[in-house]
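R.M. (postdoc): so does anyone remember the format we settled on? I'll just put the structure tokens first.
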């Protein structure tokens, strides 16, 4: 078997693990959660070892990488000494971060090989979910193959059962639209619409960097739109607006013909989403706004080292009584500050700031959009400690090796 083929197999294996780790339904099945988490970690470790053995000669500076790994380990281990809540899980998280320091250097065409594999996997998920959404959820041409336990929104250990279609598509949320009425949102294999939108958006941003053809990225755009997620709609508006400003003014009319329908559809969707009531019985926007308040309140109580990574109890203690059955959190930025304090928050901020600085320095608009889009999602969606975010943060901190490459 050729070296490149083996490398691709390892990369796609890790990419599948990263995708499943980012809020997939399987991780919210109480029967699978613990074993699947261990399995995903083993896939990450074994796949990364294979990828590194095959591509070890591509590591740009082994001595520097070793020193960086040592620094990262010591920096975060100091935190774990002072705040030992969830010590075992956070130690595994730290080891994952160090693994990413190494495999982020295994290059694809314009991004790390692992991220290009992830975006390709998400294209397959997007196409499959759109087809299944049309056939199963919209036109009801196929009945569910069964129901699976689902604890994403469970309270006090009580969970519900959701429809599944051969475990390749799940129905987890609905929405009520004027005239049309109640329809199922496309959540693909993820726990809810914002989580599906998150994964589709990240893949969309990566495809912009890799320069994929429009007919490929359009599948991701459609997938984002069918989730009816506010965050996804706003990201599309942001990206199209930036790209619109970049293009030549002589094509202004053609740009408007393309952009205006998207903007109108997005704005209508946003208004519908803001006005609708979530399945929890209160306005989704009220919950999101309250989450920022709760996160900042908790951060001010534990400003230096936070309440402990993964310590959700500290957050729920600051939630008002009206949220007794709605304790889920919705954004990453205040969760990181509340649970990790300034000590951990500075590490996240450093990666984003360095990513912005390097993309501006090397005048790389597409990579700038990737950093800016990821930061926007970090501020509006909950994926604080998922593999995909950690990998992107490492990339932004080490972006120079790719930005220099793209100038050649």
């Amino acid at each position: 078997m050729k070296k490149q083929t083996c490398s691709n197999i390892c990369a796609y294996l890790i990419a599948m693990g990263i995708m499943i780790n980012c809020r997939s339904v399987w991780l919210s099945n109480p029967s699978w959660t613990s074993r699947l988490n261990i399995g995903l970690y083993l896939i990450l470790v074994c796949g990364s070892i294979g990828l590194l053995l095959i591509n070890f000669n591509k590591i740009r500076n082994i001595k520097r990488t070793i020193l960086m790994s040592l620094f990262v380990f010591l920096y975060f281990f100091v935190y774990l000494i002072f705040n030992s809540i969830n010590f075992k899980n956070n130690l595994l998280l730290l080891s994952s971060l160090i693994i990413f320091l190494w495999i982020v250097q295994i290059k694809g065409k314009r991004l790390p090989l692992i991220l290009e594999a992830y975006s390709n996997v998400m294209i397959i998920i997007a196409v499959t979910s759109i087809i299944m959404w049309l056939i199963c959820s919209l036109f009801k041409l196929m009945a569910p193959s069964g129901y699976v336990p689902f604890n994403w929104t469970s309270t006090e250990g009580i969970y519900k059962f959701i429809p599944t279609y051969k475990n390749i598509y799940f129905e987890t949320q609905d929405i009520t639209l004027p005239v049309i009425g109640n329809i199922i949102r496309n959540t693909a294999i993820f726990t809810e619409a914002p989580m599906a939108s998150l994964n589709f958006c990240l893949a969309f941003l990566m495809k912009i960097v890799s320069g994929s053809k429009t007919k490929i990225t359009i599948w991701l755009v459609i997938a984002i739109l069918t989730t009816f997620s506010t965050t996804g709609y706003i990201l599309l508006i942001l990206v199209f607006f930036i790209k619109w400003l970049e293009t030549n003014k002589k094509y202004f009319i053609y740009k408007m013909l393309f952009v205006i329908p998207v903007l109108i559809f997005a704005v209508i969707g946003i208004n519908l989403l803001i006005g609708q009531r979530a399945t929890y019985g209160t306005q989704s926007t009220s919950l999101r706004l309250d989450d920022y308040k709760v996160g900042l309140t908790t951060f001010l109580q534990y400003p230096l080292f936070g309440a402990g990574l993964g310590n959700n109890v500290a957050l729920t203690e600051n939630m008002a009584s009206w949220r007794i059955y709605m304790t889920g959190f919705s954004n990453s930025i205040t969760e990181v500050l509340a649970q990790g304090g300034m000590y951990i928050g500075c590490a996240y901020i450093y990666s984003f700031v360095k990513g912005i600085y390097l993309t501006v320095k090397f005048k790389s608009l597409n990579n700038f959009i990737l950093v800016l889009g990821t930061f926007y999602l970090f501020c509006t969606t909950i994926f604080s400690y998922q593999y995909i975010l950690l990998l992107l943060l490492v990339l932004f901190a080490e972006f120079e090796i790719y930005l220099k490459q793209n100038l050649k």
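R.M.: ...and that's the designed sequence above, right after the tokens. Also worth knowing: The longest strand covers residues 146-155. Confidence is low (pLDDT under 50) at residues 276-282.
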